[in-house]
Amino acid sequence: MTKPKDNSKQLKEELEECKSGWIRTQADFDNYRKRTEDQRAEMMTFASANIIQKILPILDHMDLALKHLPKELENNEWAKGILHTKKHFEETLDIEGLSKIPETGQFDPNFHEAISHESSVLPENEIIETTQIGYMFKDRLLRPAKVRVSSGSNS
Amino acid sequence: MSKIIGIDLGTTNSVVAVMEGGKPKIIPSAEGNNLIPSVVAISKNNERLVGQLAKRQSVTNPENTIFSVKRLIGRSFSDEEVQRDIHLMPYKIVKSDGGVKVLMETPSTSSGQGKEYSPQEISAFILQKIKSDAEAYLGEKVSEAVITVPAYFNDSQRQATKDAGVIAGLEVKRIINEPTASALSYGLDKKKEGKVAVYDLGGGTFDITILEIGEGVFEVMSTAGDTHLGGDDFDIKIMDWILEEYKKQEGIDIKSDKMALQRIKEAAEKAKIELSSSQETEINLPFITADANGPKHLVLKINRSKLEQLVGDLIEKTAIPCKQALKDAKIETGDISDVILVGGMTRMPAVQAKVKEIFGKEPSKTVNPDECVALGAAIQGGVLAGEVKDLLLLDVTPLSLGIETLGGVATKLIERNTTVPTSKSQIFSTAADNQTSVEVHVVQGERELASDNKTLGRFMLDGIPPSPRGIPQVEVTFDIDANGILNVSAKDKATGKEQKITITATSGLSDEEIDKMKKDAELHAEEDKKKKEVIEVKNLAENLIYTSEKAIKEAGDKITEDEKKETEDKIKALKDTLLKDDIEDIKKSTEELSQSIQKIGQKMYQEAAENKESEKKEEEPNPTTDEEKPEDKKE
User: Which one of A10, B168, B330, B395 is at 20 to 30 Å from B420 when CA atoms are compared?
Assistant: First the structure.
């Protein structure tokens, strides 16, 4: 007769492996749950940001339309009606949390995307013109403004 | 134990991912994007910028904005690639100890002498941002990573990439090839053996790699490609077409209008993406320009076949490197077991068709082509961290599991595609008064009626104390363990009595049967829904009849004979409709009985309230004369 094989060492190892795998999964799950809760809260706050982002090109077109308003139509009632509509549209989005990035000032990559660097009477690094308006949604950047930046007066 | 992140350190963009609960997940940057531009700059304010911020100011600061540094890393100054870039790049590339360095100037150095950085250091700045963004997202320190490199990178380039990681404070556990990482993200390491073609068409370059798999190990058999063929070229073709069409229509050439060009470029890219899922799209750019007559607009329709016409020769160009790679690997297309797609451009149907044509096989596209390299790197990181083990591959129940309830309805307890092991309990009750046993009929399937599903087992639980229907509480529990064995138990909460059965995995349905069951459920969905509705309406009606008859009995002589008759008539009418299956009739009669019985209920409450009032009056000492005696006593 021989002693039965002692596989307690192997079993102990397997047990440790299982335990640590289990604990790791619990931890992963816990972290996932915490993160999901945070994400859900964030999503609720920024849910409309997604849709508004898709609407921005329409706002851009309306801005362009205003820019190109023919002089002879400046007092035209129908044209004024369109402008009132545009204003209403903007106010509605404002209430949701949308705000325009100021069209002038110092160039800041946190808010602006430079599309050109041109010599100008304006001091270096100042915005010459905003060619496409940028927007913040609540306190987050939704779309950077496209700007022409001054390189100073040296050619 | 900290996580090992997987990094796709790309020429134009970088992506980072990590394993979470056994699945790889992309980590968004601090700015909230999945892609991080591989751009580094020193701003006019002497600030180091990385990623989106660096990209946004590049036009104002071209000499100090470093991009595509991957083209320089690990190379010697005399390399052809380096020499070409010296003339192409707006930033200075200089020789340094046989290697290469880039020059970034800071405002403080008035003499124009800036500081030299090796490509490793530039890449390290990007990796540093990735590291800190990952730490912010995960909420824990990150010190280890797996980084991917192109399959054609030599030792020097691989070492330099590793060094970049070290400079960034990351221990690079492994450098793996990008096509290998993609193959991992498709789970191809599970295959015993095979040959995989990885077709990578990104923004600027095309790479084809043939991999050989053996026992989970990947080997590169051959690589080929075109370093100047990518999505950007497709955009240019579309742009050129738009400009030409506009010239034809309006006679205006807007090529020189920088603003207009910018809008058209964006619109071209958008249209290209749209046409991957739609047959036709419209390019709508009002106020694109203006002439003496006023503002002008650009509105053009483009359909998929036009697009395919425009980019056809670009797609055709990818065939040559593919054929070369097969030749170099000394195999035929028939030897390829899998073809996988990498890079955003592979979303285009025409590209996918070309791949099928070249390799004679349908390509796999289930993993996001922009993310699969990073996801694969994360999987490798998980393996190295000991997180991914075969034992832990989780299963799901392919079909819903439930029991048969009143009317023959199948009530689901565990929905299909639930990950197992899992456990679910629900309380049920009896359908008739004094019912002392319940039958638990366990079914599997998606149909609404139990009889249309597969019976897995049946058992009875008896000894339930006699009570009115709906009062007993029987807890039914479904438990599936890690081996797929289902245990169903029913326990009477009053007596604690319990019965259970065990159903092994093999007594369920086969794969073919599962597919058929799912299809049947879809086909019969409408009619099943109607059947179920009939049953539910009937159940509701029967319940109302029961409670109404009870109410009449309890009311006794508190209601008039007329009121009693009216309600009894409604009960009879409802019972009659139940003999047929007309839902509308049953609903109508149910409503009528409901209103009738409510009147009785109301009356009962009213009476109870009135009697309470007079009870109160009795208790108050009333001045009475000798002739008046308090007589009306309440029962």
Answer: A10
